[in-house]
Write a structure and sequence with these properties.
The protein is built from 14 helices and 19 strands. By secondary structure, it is α/β, with parallel strands linked by helices. Bound molecules: cytidine-5'-triphosphate (CTP).
């Protein structure tokens, strides 16, 4: 739970996307956040306050005039780590930009000095209107941050212009980043992550590859984004959806991975090499598909360059380098050897076992560094990523 005990104010204004605010409220509560939901009168026409109350386990607020809550707007403005507006309608943005405070939510916004994150949602023409654009510019100049809107289907029909609210999971990640970055040493750091397998062509159709899914690397990229890092993900072939907020550079072979890493290396403060590059490639690649009728096939394999070792003398001074080792036996001994041989600050050891490793959703990682050896439990790959980044922050 990455937001345990953190106060989040969720302001909901009246647009059809307010039904998605329920998913967001639930996601925040599941992450351990203490969520105060404040609805405008029109939001309460779309979704009843009791729905939010049931989802977050706290009363949902809507009025400046509730008995016993005379100064609630001041406390709510002051005490939350972030104030999130999802959806933020054109009308709410206009009232906030003008400094109007005629209901509980706008009164909170006027009293607030801490971070505000808004997820605009409205008809695409309303979003494009100069009045809305001017209001957005005013609010951005006051330090508000925005997530979306994105092009995509609106309640009134398809659209290829922005207006649709970002998905709740993306808004959640921006919230996590706003709450966690101020206390993270990774905030503002350039983090380079490699993930997934690579594949080496035998002919135009066949490849040599491995079972890496890329999930652990993608989880690391997402977790680094959630801590405020500027993340570049170099990803081999995987079917996974790219993580939100990260720059993604797709590669296929180990040589392409090496070239992409070389491009991003000069600015990287932290290097997380979670990819499982193919260690061998066919010594020759056939120009045409070899048919079965040709009989037995013998392959000569040539080693590929070790990408991580190749970075050793070209890393930014002070950059922290983390290698990953997937082992079947003698894990700790091999990990210690790789720590020294590859010039690393940390080796993340992954022992092949049931329920952990390349293809599954969970992992059991052991961290090997000059600090010593720490074995982790079987956990989700995102939880494992948090464990790795905690260690990286200790070493930074
Ligand atoms: N690695 C790399 N380039 C390669 C092979 C591996 O950069 N061609 C990186 C991986 O991303 C990982 C680390 O090196 O961070 C260790 O990978 P692993 O396959 O365990 O180690 P190898 O050095 O290939 O050793 P071996 O297969 O002999 O155990």
């Amino acid at each position: 739970m990455t937001l345990t005990g953190r106060h989040v104010l969720l302001g909901v204004s009246g647009g059809i996307a307010s039904y998605k605010a329920c998913t967001l409220a639930r996601r925040l509560a599941d992450a351990g956040a203490v969520v105060d939901v404040v609805l405008t009168a029109s939001a309460a026409e779309f979704v009843r306050p009791v729905t939010f109350e049931a989802l977050v386990g706290r009363p949902a607020l809507g009025s400046l005039w509730d008995p016993g809550r005379a100064l609630a707007h001041i406390a709510l403005a002051r005490d939350s780590a972030v104030a999130v507006l999802a959806p933020a309608t054109a009308n709410l943005l206009a009232r906030a930009a003008a400094g109007i405070a005629d209901d509980l939510l706008t009164a909170i916004l006027l009293a607030r000095t801490g971070p505000v994150l808004a997820a605009p949602a409205m008809n695409d023409a309303m979003y494009a209107h100069p009045a809305t654009q001017a209001n957005l510019a005013i609010l951005a100049a006051r330090g508000w941050r925005f997530v979306g809107p994105v092009p995509g289907p609106l309640a009134e029909g398809p659209s290829d212009r922005p207006g649709r609210m970002s998905e709740p999971e993306e808004i959640f990640l921006e919230i996590e980043r706003a709450v966690r970055a101020p206390a993270s040493k990774l905030a503002g750091k350039a983090v380079l992550v490699t993930a997934g397998p690579t594949r080496e062509a035998l002919d135009p159709i066949r490849v040599l590859s491995n079972r890496s899914s890329g999930r652990q690397g993608f989880a690391l990229a997402e977790a680094a984004f959630a801590r405020g890092a500027d993340v570049t993900l170099v990803a081999g072939p995987t079917a996974l959806t790219p993580p939100y907020g990260c720059r993604v550079d797709r590669v296929d072979s180990t040589a392409e991975l090496a070239a992409a890493v070389a491009r991003h290396l000069p600015s990287a403060d932290v290097l997380l090499m979670a990819a499982a590059p193919a260690d061998f490639r066919p010594a020759t690649t056939d120009a045409k598909k070899r048919t079965r009728a040709a009989g037995d096939l013998s392959l000569t394999l040539a080693p590929t360059p070790d990408v991580l070792v190749g970075t050793r003398d070209r890393r930014k001074p002070g950059a922290l380098a983390v290698g990953f080792a997937y082992e079947t036996d003698d894990g700790e001994t091999n990990a210690r050897a790789k720590l020294a041989a590859k010039g690393l600050d940390l080796v993340v050891l992954n022992l092949a076992e049931e329920g952990a490793g390349a293809e599954g959703e969970t992992n059991r990682l052991t961290l090997v560094s000059a600090e010593g050896v720490t074995a982790g439990p079987l956990e989700t790959k995102r939880q494992a990523a948090e464990r790795v980044l905690d260690a990286v922050e200790r070493l930074l």
